[in-house]
Design brief:
alpha/beta; FAD/NAD(P)-binding domain; 3 domains; binds iron/sulfur cluster; binds flavin-adenine dinucleotide
């Protein structure tokens, strides 16, 4: 028992009765605080590196936010998605969806299937050949974009929206970077890729393909021809296996293997393939190797390493003789901690790849010709938090081909002066290269990560380039740096634009038409946490999960079709309906129904729009905060009113 008095107590000594419920509800707990409508960023959006207005397009899909005129909801949702991200059909398929990890609905039963709805919107746009908004006015400024990966193309898109001329300079014949030469077609179908890239080019983006900066043209030449340069080189070089024997001819890199497969040169692989690495690239290598299989009695020239190193190419007809390949994947990380997306790990193991975690390569076992015939590995123990080799656990795994997918770096030939010493380029908060006012950078060349990360960086870089080209100061980026819903734009779109502000002293804003009464936009500074939502409002609803084609170890050989099947319109709307609209009103009427003073009222139908659905009569409000308590989306906060 403590001898200190409690400092915070709900009841005082002697408090042993309560007032009648009637009184408790209608007059008790009066305060000077009245509801204000505070727009905040939902955590899904806060954790989407592209900063998509996810809540916005989900609310459009579920019919809460209406499309203007007779526009289809899908088209309106597409325009909302592409404010931030011009690749919804690709992202809906292969983004590991950090947004879903952050989703507040996880506190109810399961996250909203955000990328499944995103895929539906992206596929609808492709099917209906929806374009991106046409450029309104040309600025007369020109920007060179080095690299046509997702970073370069997203940057070109955002710059065209601001009217700047863009020229994409690409070393390869075709555009798309790792979306085309890394990620296999059964994850990103090429017609989807071509469709999403084509839409950006239709905005008037010029392309110089087969042109390598540093070889065919120098960076300095670009700097003198263009007003600014964006560098999106990606990380094209795979790291070799750093163990004795790791330089054997049949020890190749994952990016080399996938590039040879994706450009059609590699038609089959070896009978026993060993993949090293626990990331997405190694999963792709292993899954592709299972699909390619091997052929018996292949000629020396046809060995996969010769194809990968570009010495020759397979005759496509040999594919008819494929037989299955045994594929083993080893990862230094423990199985549960592998960096690869969980879904990819699941798919790959379902397709017959043997995955082993907590194993470290010791050396490559070589034959008399210096070719790898196996790899010696040792178990590691992670129980102390660090990896510790377990003595006496060394053993050999036999194989005919080793593919190392253990990391990537940039090829900075021609950009040597920008090298940060680790084969990458450093950027400041605006994605400008430090010390070079006209050079901006984004994507994997700053640090290899995800497609959505490259898109987000490119969008910030494009905003920075726009300021640089307009001779404006670089404005401080918002704390929550995402593409925000703008109530003002929404009011303008729906012909409810506020009147002009006359810059004179006024008392009270509830009747003024220049102000949006009672509304505060804190989306640039706050993310709304789940404990500020009234979660009791939501009943348990299963997630609408996309169906998958069942690819088994027996059917994987030669199976290059897409694995996942998109949602139907009905499923997409149902899934969107699970969204709790965190940080924004979704017109549930709880506050109107539960306010004991009838102080809360619906804004007139002719004046209401998304985010402007309810209002408060401060002359009636007693500050009891029931509305705040019953608001499921955390949109109401008790602020000071009159
Ligand atoms: C196998 C693999 C699977 C992946 N899977 C996923 C996934 O499922 N989900 C996900 O979100 N991310 C995935 N990633 C990561 C993702 O692909 C990258 O983060 C993304 O592609 C980076 O985009 P980028 O534009 O920076 O670079 P890149 O896509 O690499 O594009 C760079 C472009 O620049 C060009 N280029 C380079 N140097 C020059 C030069 N000197 N002159 C002219 N052009 C040049 C290249 O040819 C290339 O086209 C994967 C990566 C790999 C390798
Ligand atoms: S891009 Fe990725 S993180 Fe962003 S909304 Fe789509 S799935 Fe989520
Ligand atoms: S419930 Fe909706 S708004 Fe809230 S975090 Fe999830 S997807 Fe975003």
């Amino acid at each position: 028992m403590t001898d200190k008095l409690l400092t915070k107590r709900r009841f005082k000594d002697g408090d042993n009765s309560h007032r009648p419920w009637q009184e408790e509800i209608f007059t008790a707990d009066a305060s000077h605080k009245c509801p204000t409508y505070v727009h905040r960023t939902p955590p899904c959006q806060g954790s989407c590196p592209s900063g998509e207005d996810i809540r916005g397009w989900l609310n459009i899909a579920r019919g809460i936010e209406k499309a203007p005129g007779d526009m289809a909801w899908q088209e309106y949702a597409f325009s909302r998605v592409t404010d931030a991200n011009p690749f919804p059909a690709i992202m809906g398929r292969v983004c590991p969806a950090p947004c879903e990890d952050g989703c507040n609905r996880n506190e109810v039963e399961d996250h909203v299937g955000i990328n499944a709805v995103e895929q539906f919107i992206g596929d609808y746009a492709l099917e209906h050949k929806l374009g991106l908004p046409a450029v309104v006015a040309e600025s007369g400024k020109k920007v060179a974009i080095v690299g046509s990966g997702v970073a370069g193309l997203a940057c070109a898109y955002h710059l065209r929206r601001k009217g700047h001329a863009c020229t994409v300079i690409e070393a390869h014949e075709e555009l798309g970077g790792m979306m085309r030469y890394g990620i296999p077609g059964y994850r990103v179908p090429r017609e989807v890729l071509d469709g999403e890239i084509g839409r950006i080019l239709d905005l008037g983006v010029e392309v110089r393909n087969n042109t390598k900066v540093g070889v065919d043209v120098t960076l300095e030449e670009l700097q003198s021809e263009f007003d600014a340069v964006f560098i999106g080189l990606g990380a094209q070089s795979g790291s070799a296996l750093p163990v004795p024997g790791g330089d054997a001819p049949n020890c190749i890199t994952g990016v080399g293997f996938l590039q040879a497969f994706n450009d059609g040169r590699l038609q089959h692989t070896s009978a026993r393939v060993l993949v090293v690495g626990g990331g997405d690239t190694s999963m792709d290598v292993a899954a592709v190797a299972r699909r390619l299989g091997h052929i018996k009695n292949k000629r020396k020239n046809d060995r996969p390493e010769n194809i990968v190193l570009g010495h020759t190419a397979h005759d496509a007809a040999t594919a008819a003789h494929r037989q299955g390949a045994d594929v083993t994947l080893i990862s230094w990380e423990a199985l549960d901690d592998m960096p690869a997306t969980k879904m990819e790990v699941l798919h790959t193991s379902r397709e017959g790849v043997k995955i082993m975690g907590s194993l470290l390569p010791v050396n490559v076992i070589l034959d008399d010709e210096g070719r790898a015939t196996g790899i010696r590995v040792i178990d590691v123990d992670w129980s102390s938090g660090k990896s510790e080799k377990i003595a006496g656990t060394e053993r050999d795994i036999e194989c005919d081909l080793i593919v190392a997918a253990i990391g990537q770096a940039g090829d900075l030939s021609g950009f040597e002066s920008l090298d940060n010493g680790r084969g990458l380029i450093d950027a400041d908060g605006f994605y400008r290269v430090k010390g070079h006012p006209d050079l901006f950078v984004g994507g994997d060349i700053t640090k290899p990560h995800l497609l959505t990360t490259a898109i987000g960086q490119a969008s910030i870089a494009a905003a920075g380039i726009n300021l640089f080209l307009s001779d404006a100061d670089m404005k401080k980026r918002p704390k929550v740096d995402v593409h925000h819903f703008s109530l003002l734009e929404k009011l303008q779109e729906t012909d409810h634009a506020p009147g002009a502000y006359e810059h004179k002293q006024v008392r009270g804003t509830d009747g003024a038409d220049f102000a949006i009464h009672n509304y505060e936009d804190r989306s640039g500074v706050e993310v709304v946490p789940s404990d500020e939502l009234f979660l009791g409002h939501f009943k348990y609803e299963d997630r609408n999960i996309r169906a998958e084609h069942d690819i088994t170890p027996d059917s994987v050989l030669g199976s290059f079709g897409e694995r996942i099947q998109g949602l139907s319109e009905e499923q997409a709307k149902k899934e969107a309906d699970r969204c709790m609209s965190c940080g924004m009103c979704f017109e549930c009427d709880n506050c109107v129904i539960f306010c004991p003073q009838d102080a809360i009222f619906r804004v007139k139908k002719t004046e209401s729009t998304m985010g402007r659905y309810v209002d408060t009569d401060y002359t009636k409000c007693i500050g009891c905060h029931i509305c705040e308590d019953v608001c499921p989306s955390g949109y109401i906060r008790m602020g000071l009113g009159e």
